[in-house]
């Protein structure tokens, strides 16, 4: 079967979405399917990868996103899709590419929309726009304004009506569809590379370059954009240092808020690494950290947090996101701001190191890419190879 996948907001520096696209595509390919991924770029291109053929089509840069592009030209994309003749269509963009569900239906092609973000959460985060570091944002906790709920419901019903199946990766992500009684909703978790991200990747020499022998190493791996709330780890570090806790922070990632964050971190022991392209280097960084911080309040899964757990590092996360159901008891979910994050970090540091690292790794082993690929194939109503563990609906 030929599975054609469409995705916007993907660049060579993308994080979780690019990883998910690559790993799931590799799983489809290993299962014997012909896989094509179509993404935007600055010029047309084709390249073969372990995840199948990647086709790049021209797409403009979205302002103030740090380089993200989108496919906006419909007619060329329709011609491309007609030429590719997919048996299944998988779309990872609930906004600008939603119309492709109609194209698939008109051609008799089964289609799936993968929900990588919460519209309800994003609208509540940015509306109304309030002053704050890294952009005008607010925490998404509490009941939404009526107009937000109305708009979210309208868009989500349109999405569900355009595709044969809507795939969500967590219960938290599926909640906005469940409340509407959407019948074509399935839940399939993403996974983590348990070989690359492992406690054995701990590199004492790397750690010595990042923290002193008596210092606690904190890590934040994320795109530096407003919805990720990258200010929270910095403010939490400030609070820890005020309390006399000898902690340092390493920030791996880049984005439109980096300059503002560097200014916010002035006078604090914070090192900005920028985008780290080498995944093995990321694995070594996470394995050497004492605590990772994933502060995004609208994360629908949180691959970076799961990678930290796989590396044996506990995680402090936002309680407003889907991450509490991903991290289980291998981390702490925070309701408040910097003081609450500092409290959670201190509580994790107070745990026996071997116990907290063992718990982190044990939680991560519940999420593997083979199981995730099998679940996605089942959602596509495609056969699942017998060697793949199947997941849909509830964790194995």
TrEMBL record:
This is GDP-mannose-dependent alpha-(1-6)-phosphatidylinositol dimannoside mannosyltransferase. Keywords: Glycosyltransferase, Transferase. It comes from Acrocarpospora pleiomorpha. One of its GO terms (molecular function) is glycosyltransferase activity. SUPFAM superfamilies: UDP-Glycosyltransferase/glycogen phosphorylase. It comes from the Bacteria. One of its GO terms (biological process) is carbohydrate derivative biosynthetic process. Residues 15-191 form the Glycosyltransferase subfamily 4-like N-terminal domain. Residues 214-359 form the Glycosyl transferase family domain. InterPro entries: Glyco_trans_1 (IPR001296), Glyco_trans_4-like_N (IPR028098), Glycosyltransferase_grp1 (IPR050194).
